[in-house]
Hints:
Number of helices: 4
Helix content: 10-25%
Strand order of the largest sheet: 1-14-17-4
Structural class: alpha+beta
Distance between the termini: 11 Å
Mean pLDDT: 75
Shape: globular
Strand content: 15-25%
Number of strands: 17
Largest sheet: 4 strands, mixed
Low-confidence stretches: 13-47, 51-82
Amino acid sequence: PFGVSLEFTFGAGHVVxxxxxxxxxxxxxxxxxxxxxxxxEFLFGKHGHNVEKCIFTPMIRSLxxxxxxxLIALFGCSNSEYAPGAGENDYLASLGLKDFVxxxxxxxxxxxxxxxxxxxxxxxxxxKSYFDYDFxxxxxxxxxxxxxxxxxxxxxxxxxxxxDAILYANKKSKxxxxxxxxxxxxxxxxxNHSCIGIDGLIFRPLVNAYRLPTEAEWIYVANMGWKPExxxxxxxxxxxxxxxxxxxxxxxxxxxxxGNAMEWVYDLWVPFHTxxxxxxxxxxxxxGVEERVLKG
Length: 296
């Protein structure tokens, strides 16, 4: 209802072998953007995918931006929760990452999708993905102030395309002296200066940079504190956006995984597999209709 927002993750990792289905890739560390406003029954992101279709020019949606990483919600197995110590918080602040949280995902698993027959066919079957890396995720969605948008500073940044999110992540990386997580050949803009297409987009998971979270990362974080009934939803929000972190915040300090605004993740939608995978990332870009995954 409120559109899509951005959430960022930060980190670097290694490329892992591709699945036999060439439409699906598995990567190591990454940074991410994402977030969705929950539905009346709090089902956005609950079983798996919310999909946005596009033909090189996705519809403009609102974006929730988090400095690093993403939360996905629901069906993952989070084996433990992590509460950062004061020393680690001081260290992150010294790196300019005070608004991020370290996610100890290495060696852990997350379950994407569901086997429930009532769920959408696009959310079945359930699939387990293993992490062999840790990552950082922003405590809250990227705000209007951070993106320098003409809206209240404390609100999540919205009305940005998936490609706007990609470019913002690269811009933030370069501004802070990091490499960029995305490379490309050509950009396309509309009359309002929103990016509506990127030719030759390549995701570079090996670099330390800001990026959109993967769906697996988003779900893993969301599972650490998924309480949509305490979030901003259509029963208590008056159908308006609210300041970030003004509702529920989990014990790791991450807020607004559920509710307030929808969130982009990096993944293209492809069917889940019945086999276990490592460091899962959705499909590869191709010509024609693409379905981007939304969470929140």
